[in-house]
């Protein structure tokens, strides 16, 4: 059994790549029809196309919706019968927090204690809230400066995949089958994966490299729906409004107040689902509210939708002059429904994690990935760690070891796929 670890370093470290990529503003936008939703994603896509070609990738291309594809040919004698493994990461960063002018800071040889982010000292990564810091003594921790997110979600995944390809080129004795690579736009709003060419990608199965803490392997995602609630009132001049004006805003706030406080993202954990009032628009005449519904079981998700409709009926009874309409959209399903029939995908990831010197933890992800869509389009896709923490916020961080161990795990993974076959 081949378990060789690369002896020759890649031409650029995962850290070096990561620091370059986070400097490109790829923050995506919600409620934008075009894909990609922001032009910066094209800038990163073109850069990655050039780098993939420089590293020996073949059939490197970018689609008209900014999906980057490439292939790394296998080097084993039986490559034709080794299944093609796909590795996927996304180029955009979350819409909620600025991704412009990211200034990465390396806190070298971290020796413990809270980390104060220099350009906004109110932003503090505390050991109390982030006990994993106790395991990172001596590591080089990477943060932003306190005014933006960092972009580890998912530029850490991109950096690890490119560094894997670089490592394989520098160490041709590492045996592997063909590897399909893709970098996607607009993963955060969920629209970028819709045009993904599963057949052209050519993989038998894939992994998104889009998770967080070291060693964590995700074999489940939410069942997810989005409810859009429209409140219709009636406007008129406030000076002559008595008996005429119907303010839709009060109905909206009443409905939000009826959501049980113990069923929100900030009060749930583990396998508990939630309601997430995430965004909306308010106006006297017409207000809207978008609420995410999440549960790991379809029965639980159905129950939450029924509860929301009951809540809306209660609000309607209190505000009979306001029109209330609910539209519910299915977003994605739990990948466990498919992955339970292909246990080798998780088994291989567990073994690769162990060979990288880490303790594997298989758990559900309290979120969704591109893999949640691809799995139900015929491409089973679990999610793998990147070493990052506190995604989507200004307290996001990763580390040199996090990036290096993610890359090392991928090196082992492609070897295991070849060995298994």
Question: What series of H and E elements makes up the topology?
Answer: HHEEEEEEEHEHEEEHEEHEHHEHEEH
The amount of beta strand, in percent, is: 15-25%
SS class:
alpha+beta
Mean pLDDT: 96
Number of helices: 10
The major beta sheet can be summarized as: 8 strands, mixed
Helix proportion: 25-40%
CA-atom Rg in angstroms: 23 Å
Quaternary status: single chain
Shape: globular
Termini gap: 12 Å
β-strand number: 17
List low-pLDDT spans.
Answer: none
Order of strands across the biggest sheet? 1-2-8-3-9-16-10-15
How would you describe what is shown here?
The model has no long low-confidence stretch (mean pLDDT 96). The longest helix has 21 residues, at 298-318. The termini are close together. The chain is 29% helix and 21% strand. It is built from ten helices and 17 strands. It has helices at residues 14-22, 40-54, 152-170, 198-201, 248-257, 298-318, 336-339, 344-355, 370-374, 400-420, and strands at residues 58-62, 68-72, 85-90, 105-107, 115-116, 124-125, 141-143, 179-184, 205-209, 216-220, 223-232, 274-281, 286-295, 323-332, 361-364, 383-384, 397-399. The chain is α+β, with helices and mostly antiparallel strands. An eight-stranded mixed sheet has the order 1-2-8-3-9-16-10-15. A four-stranded antiparallel sheet has the order 12-13-11-14. Strand 12 (274-281) and strand 13 (286-295) form a beta hairpin.
């Amino acid at each position: 059994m081949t378990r060789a670890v690369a002896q020759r370093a890649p031409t650029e470290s995962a850290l070096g790549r990561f620091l370059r990529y986070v400097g490109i503003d790829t923050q995506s936008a919600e409620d934008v029809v075009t894909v990609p939703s922001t032009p910066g994603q094209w800038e990163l896509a073109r850069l990655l196309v050039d780098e993939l070609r420089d590293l020996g990738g073949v059939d490197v291309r970018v689609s008209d919706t900014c999906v980057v594809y490439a292939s790394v040919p296998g080097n084993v004698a039986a490559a034709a019968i080794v299944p093609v493994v796909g590795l996927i990461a996304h180029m955009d960063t979350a819409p909620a927090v600025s991704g412009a002018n990211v200034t990465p800071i390396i806190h070298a040889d971290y020796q413990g204690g809270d980390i104060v982010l220099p350009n906004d000292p109110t932003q503090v990564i505390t050991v109390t809230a982030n006990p994993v810091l106790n395991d990172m003594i001596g590591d080089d921790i990477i943060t932003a400066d306190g005014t933006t997110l960092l972009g580890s979600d998912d530029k850490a995944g991109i950096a690890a995949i490119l560094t894997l390809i670089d490592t394989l080129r520098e160490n041709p004795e590492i045996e592997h089958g063909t590897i399909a690579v893709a970098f996607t736009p607009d993963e955060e709003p969920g629209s970028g994966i819709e045009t993904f060419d599963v057949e052209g990608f050519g993989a038998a199965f894939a992994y998104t490299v889009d998770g967080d803490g070291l060693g964590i392997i995700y074999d489940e995602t939410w069942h997810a729906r989005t409810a859009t609630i429209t409140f219709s009132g009636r406007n008129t001049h406030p000076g002559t409004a008595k008996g005429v004006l119907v303010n839709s805003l009060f109905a909206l706030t009443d409905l939000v107040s009826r959501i049980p406080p113990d069923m929100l993202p900030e009060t749930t954990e583990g396998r508990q689902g939630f309601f997430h009032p995430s965004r909306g628009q308010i106006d006297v005449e017409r207000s809207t509210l978008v609420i995410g519904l999440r549960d790991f079981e379809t029965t639980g998700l159905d129950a939450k939708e029924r509860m929301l409709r009951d809540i809306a009926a209660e609000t309607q009874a209190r505000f009979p002059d306001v029109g209330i309409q609910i539209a519910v959209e299915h977003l994605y399903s739990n990948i466990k429904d498919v992955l339970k029939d292909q246990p080798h995908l998780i088994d291989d990831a567990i073994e690769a994690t162990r060979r990288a010197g880490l303790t594997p933890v298989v758990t559900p992800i309290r979120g969704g990935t591109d893999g949640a869509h691809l799995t139900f389009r015929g491409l089973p896709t679990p999610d793998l760690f990147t070493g990052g923490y506190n995604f989507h916020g200004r307290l996001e961080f990763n580390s040199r070891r996090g990036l290096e161990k993610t890359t090392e795990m991928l090196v082992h993974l492609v070897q295991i796929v070849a060995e298994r076959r």
